[in-house]
Structures are given as C-alpha cells and as structure tokens.
Amino acid sequence: MEEKRPWYRKKSALGVAAVAVAAIAAVAVPLPYVIESPGPTFNVLEKQGDKKVISVSGATTYPTSGSLRMVTVSMRGGPGANVSLAELVAAYLRGHSQITPEEEVFPKNVTREQIEQAAAAQMQGSQQNAEAAALAELGYKVPAIFEIMHVAKGTDADGKLKKGDKILRISEGGNSVTTDTAGSLFAFLKKVPPKKVVTVKVRRAGRDQDVAVRTSKAEGRRGSVMGVVLKPDVKLPVKVNIALADVGGPSAGTMFALGIIDQLTPGAMTGGKQIAGTGAIRMDGEVEAISGVPQKMAGAYADGARYFLVPRQNCADTNGAIPKGMRVVRIDTLTDARAAVESIGKGKVDALPTCSTK
C-alpha cells in the first residue's frame, strides 16, 4: 500500500521555501549604511606600478630606504552604492570595520560623481600643500598668491570679501604679514583668536583696498578662519611630481611631505624602519585631523609598519584600537613628524610623544 504524504508536510515545505526566499531577499536588500575597512597602503618612497610615487627634479636628491607608508580606508556604500545586509554582517564579524548610517557620512542629495570629484580635488590639494610645506620646512622660499574662490554665507566676510580678491597683506593687533609665501597667511591666522577683527589688504579689479573682517573659530585646529575658500597660486623652487592613481582625500599630505624631505636630505631618514602615518597638512606645516584612524592603523600594521604617526586631534580615535606591537606617535606639525621619523630611524624612540602623553 502506497503511503500518502500528509497535507501538512506539503504546506510546511512551502512555508520553509517562502521563509528561505524572504531571507535571501532581506540579505540582498540595499541598506543606507557605509562600511569603512582597512584599505591598501603605499610606500611613498617607492613606485606604484612603473612610476615613482614622488619624483623630485631641480635639486640634489639622495637615496632612501625603509618605508613611509600613506594609508587608506576602503569604503563601501554611500549614494548610488548601498550595501547589503550580508555585507554588514560580514563587516561586523570581520572586525577593524566601522559601520555608520549614510546620512552621518555624506550630505543629503549628493551624488556618487560629486563624491569622487571632491575626493580627487582633496587629493590634489593635499599634494600641493605637501610640496609647499616640505620645501618651506627645508628652508626654501615658496612664493604664492592667494585668490578668494568662495565666501561662506553667514560669516562676517560675507558681503565684504569677494570672489576674485587677491590677498596681499593681513594685520591684527599691531602684527602684520605680507601674504606672498605659501604658509604666510595660515601661519598668521593660527595665532589669531576667534572673533578678532583682522584687516585684509586685497587687490580687487586692479585697485588695492583694506577690508575689516571678524574671524571665526577654526574647527579642529588652533587659531581662526575668515570664512573664505582660497585658490593658492604657488611657485615651487624645486619641481615635485606626485603620482598616485585611484586614491582620493586629503589625509596623505603629511606622508607626502615627509617623502619629499627624505629625498632632499642626505641619509635615509627612516633608518630602514617601516613607518606609516596619516594627517592632512596645510602649507604652513600644520597637521590636521582626519577620519578612519582605527582602520588605517590596522592596514598599516598588516603591511608591516610598527610605527604610526597620528595628528594630536585624532588621539581619542586610537583608544582601544592600536594593534599590539605598534607604537603610535602624536604629531602637531610637519616639523614634529620629521623629528619623529628621524628619531625612529636612529632608534631613539623613548622620548617620542604618544597619545597618552600629557
């Protein structure tokens, strides 16, 4: 006698199939989150492909050794590229990854193309800043002209300074500087507290005039800002070319500058050591905060670096995230970073400032 399959088994099988389909669909549904994971690192003293990352001409250069690694963050998600639940689960289990709601990372209504354009512009700016800061650190005079590209709405500069103004001089409280070198304007504003009135001499439509502007707080750094975006025209006394494909953002500036300095100074600055680091840089050599420090430290450690340079403002980001055996060195300026690398190269590391140093 043939046994008949009970009706409830058929229904149960259909239910299991439905649940499985629903689970697969849920895993595949795109979600508005961003996953940041350790990305590749690049030794700025070597080549990427068949091109040197940093090429210097017009001055005597010297052999280098070891590594000065710039670090990156691999980012998944964001506008036009939402991640799946499966990717979120994998990132959570993998460790060294940060999962953040998309709206906390990107402005509303921004497109993927705009994000890529902004990252490319930041990388280009970081390279120009690194070149100017490195040469100034080595004692070169780096001529520059600062033109205003944009004036921020709601600042005291709004309606006073204008797009196209060329800044010639800035004064405050009896102190004054001609802004004809790459770091001059930034170095001056670094010493001016917020809400102080500065007098800015600008050239507008061929005529010079003085404009009084009240400064604002500089978020994440010392001094103040005027509420303008500048377009610097820099004349480098030494030709420097930085070639690094498919990498965006401003955070490689400090390592680029160190790579330039190493090539232009006798002796291998690293002493053959594997050193990594991060930090945006201004033309006056000030190192500024960046994002993704835990992921960058993990990537650097995986690629052999045992020393990591980090901006002072990012010290809190290192808490509980420093790989075992890695020494983190706190820096504020390019001068600090250079001194740290030279000390590491000589094996004199005990006195180097860390994020726990008061």
TrEMBL record:
Q: Tell me the GO molecular function terms.
A: ATP-dependent peptidase activity; serine-type endopeptidase activity
**SUPFAM superfamilies given in the database record:** PDZ domain-like, Ribosomal protein S5 domain 2-like
Residue limits of the Lon proteolytic domain?
A: 248-327
For this protein, the record's Gene3D superfamilies field holds:
2.30.42.10, 3.30.230.10
Classification via InterPro entries: Lon_proteolytic, PDZ_sf, Ribosomal_Su5_D2-typ_SF, Ribsml_uS5_D2-typ_fold_subgr
Q: Name one GO biological process term.
A: proteolysis
Name used for this protein in its record: Lon proteolytic domain-containing protein
